[in-house]
Every structure is written in C-alpha cells, then in structure tokens.
Write a structure and sequence with these properties.
Distance between the termini: 11 Å
Low-confidence stretches: none
Number of strands: 10
Bound molecules: 2-amino-2-deoxy-6-O-phosphono-alpha-D-glucopyranose
Radius of gyration: 17 Å
Mean pLDDT: 97
Strand order of the largest sheet: 1-10-9-6-2-3-5
Shape: globular
Number of helices: 8
CATH architecture: 3-Layer(aba) Sandwich
Length: 261
C-alpha cells in the first residue's frame, strides 16, 4: 500500500484527478469506479477543470457506482445515482449511457445486486476505484465486520453512518434509509487500482487503522492491504495519527519518476 500525504483536500483532489487523466491517456475507455460523499468532490472538480482546459479527455470514460441507498424513489436527489449524475457525469459532460450502477429502487433487491455484479463483469471490471472512508472505517457501505470476501449485497447501516449522512437529508437521521446496496469488499478488491482519499481530522483514526492496523473486518478499509495496487491519499489532518508518516513522506519524495499514481 502506498500512502501519500498531501497538504490539504484541494491538493489531494489535484493529485487523484491527474492520476485519472493519466489512466485515461493509457486507456481512454477506462471504467472509473466513483464514490459519493464530500471527500471525492475536489477530485471531480479538478478533473472537470482539466477537461475544460483540454488537458484531460474523458469522452470515452465509463463510470461505475460503488453503493446506493435502498428504498429512495428513483430520481430522489440524494440517491447516489442522482448524486453521481450531478457531481460526476454532468460536470464531465458524460451521458447516462456511460454509467452503470445498482438499482436501489428495485422491488427485488437481491436480483438487483446480482445484476450489478454481472454488469461490472460484462464491462470488463473496474480499472480505478476511488474510495472515501467512513469514520468507522467503512468503504462503500461495507460497515464494520463485513466479510472481506463479500460481494454486492444489501447491508444495514450503523447509527453512526446514518448520523454522519443525515447532513444530506436536512439533518434528519430519520430520513436516512436503514438499508443500502454496496459492492462487497471482495468486489471492490477486484478493481485493478484502488485509490482511497481521506481528508480531515475526523478520519485520522480510521486512516491509521486502515494503513497500520491489522487486516480485520472490524475496519473494512484495512482490506486494502490485501490489494497489490492500493494508494491511500490523505491530507495532513487525516494523516495525524499515522506512526509511519515520516517513512511515507520519505518514500513519496523518492518515488521513481516512471511510477504512476
Ligand atoms: N457510502 C459513502 C462512502 O462511500 C463514503 O466514503 C462515506 C464518507 O463520506 P464523506 O466523504 O462525506 O466523509 O460516506 C458514505 O457512507
């Protein structure tokens, strides 16, 4: 696992956007796995700025969603599908045809999960999966003690996650669905490159457990240690509990020029 410590959220957004732009130069129709939440927004902004400046070409990129609330009516502004349309596809000028995601409004949730696994495989698998992290160490919506081998399935949110996400629902936890569909940890680990972005002091403990703790289902993000190409990009605040911060800085400062993100 490579841990890159950047100054702030904006610098993290620039770094990851550049990594995506470089990937798209090598593979123009790459399947990009995107995450929701506030953390990845600087990435999408920085990538859109590159598109406007003509330094990134996303025209053939394809977008895959990570997770979704169950039971919100189709088109609900806080459904993750709507959020991805609003924050990723629209600013990048991509059409809905370039998008795949689980159907959180399906009557048969189990069938929707299976259909999404099939769609991911049919699309050739995710080339780069961008991840945020929950304060409890969750990735996607894989809450603590999710199986490290799990596939796309329904999960029940912890009260902590519902409280964290209430800000998107008028601050009202009751409006935050109890259930979600999420790519499983086993599904996520199949992406060719994982990039986890974490910013702010509130994530410092989860980041330390992810990078320096044992691989344990109680911290789902620690599963990244099992992946041959995982990059964790953290700002100074999120890095504040890393014991090996000095080594991570040293390694990044001496990173060979030929090595990509
Ligand atoms: N399912 C999403 C995660 O994919 C995201 O990483 C997390 C953190 O969100 P934020 O980046 O807003 O802290 O929120 C939600 O739970």
């Amino acid at each position: 696992m490579e841990v890159v410590i950047v100054q702030d959220a904006k610098a993290g957004g620039e770094l990851v956007a550049q990594g995506i732009a470089d990937l798209l130069r090598r593979r123009p129709d790459a399947l990009l796995g995107v995450a929701t939440g506030s953390t990845p927004l600087p990435v999408y902004r920085a990538l859109a700025a590159r598109v406007r400046a003509g330094t990134a070409d996303v025209s053939r990129a394809r977008i895959a969603q990570l997770d979704e609330y169950v039971g919100l009516p189709a088109g609900h502004p806080e459904s993750y599908r709507s959020v991805v349309m609003r924050t990723v596809l629209k600013p990048l000028g991509l059409s809905p045809e370039s998008f795949i995601g689980p159907d959180g409004s399906a009557e048969d949730v189990r069938a929707a999960c299976e259909a999404y696994e099939t769609a991911l495989t049919a699309a050739g698998g995710v080339d780069l999966q961008l991840l945020g992290i929950g304060t409890d160490g969750h990735i996607g919506f894989n809450e603590p003690c999710s199986s490290l081998a799990s596939r796309t399935r329904i999960k029940t949110l912890t009260e902590q996650t519902r409280a964290d996400n209430a800000r998107f629902f008028d601050g009202d936890i009751e409006q935050v669905p109890q259930h979600v569909i999420t790519q499983g940890i086993g599904t996520i680990l199949e992406a060719r490159h994982l990039v986890l972005l974490a910013t702010g002091e509130g994530k410092a403990e989860a980041v330390a457990a992810t990078a320096e703790g044992p691989v344990a289902a109680v911290c789902p993000a620690s599963a990244l240690q099992l992946h041959p190409h995982a990059t964790v990009v953290v700002d100074e605040a999120a890095a504040s509990k890393l014991k090996l911060a000095g080594y991570f800085r040293h390694a990044y400062a001496h990173k060979p020029a030929w090595q990509d993100l």
